[in-house]
Design goal:
Blueprint lengths: L1 E6 L4 H10 L1 H4 L3 E4 L1 H11 L3 E3 L7 H10 L5 E5 L12 H11 L3 E2 L2 H13 L4 H8 L1
Parallel strand pairs: 1-2, 1-4, 2-3, 4-5
Helix pairs in contact: 1-3, 4-5
């Protein structure tokens, strides 16, 4: 499975902690992340992360393109709804695309953990069939 990972600045440490906690599960999948988020995850987990540009300089658009091409199976976008900065990635475009292309999507820790546990159980294997249809 191809998993997209993005985190607003105030949620980057939370994303690192999530990746540490679920390293065993995530290590079995291909991870894609905006630049800084990917680098921070790699530093604390030693997982390989395919890194896009930083979110504010095109990384979010690179993720969006992969979603449109049905190359991403799940997205965790930890966002800060209270203090979003103008230079942070636009969560609404990614939400729209995930809704359009039926991609499981989490914006908070609780939902992210549910998706990762579903991934571990094999509940998202249907994504492989959808991806292979194209």
């Amino acid at each position: 499975m191809n998993i997209g990972l993005v985190a607003h600045d105030t949620k980057k440490t939370l994303m690192q902690n999530l990746a540490i906690a679920y390293r065993g599960i995530l290590s079995k999948h291909d991870l894609y992340a905006t630049g800084t988020t990917g680098r921070l995850i790699e530093q604390v987990t030693n997982l390989t992360v395919h890194k896009y540009l930083a979110g504010h300089v095109g990384g979010e658009q690179q993720l969006a393109t992969q979603i449109e091409q049905n190359l991403i199976d799940m997205v965790i976008f930890l966002r800060d709804p209270m203090s979003t900065k103008p230079n942070e990635p636009d969560v609404y475009n990614v939400i729209h695309l995930c809704d359009t292309y039926n991609i499981p999507f989490a914006t908070n820790l609780a939902t992210a953990e549910l998706l990762i546990k579903a991934l571990e159980r094999g509940d998202l294997e249907w994504r492989e069939a959808v991806r292979n249809e194209q």
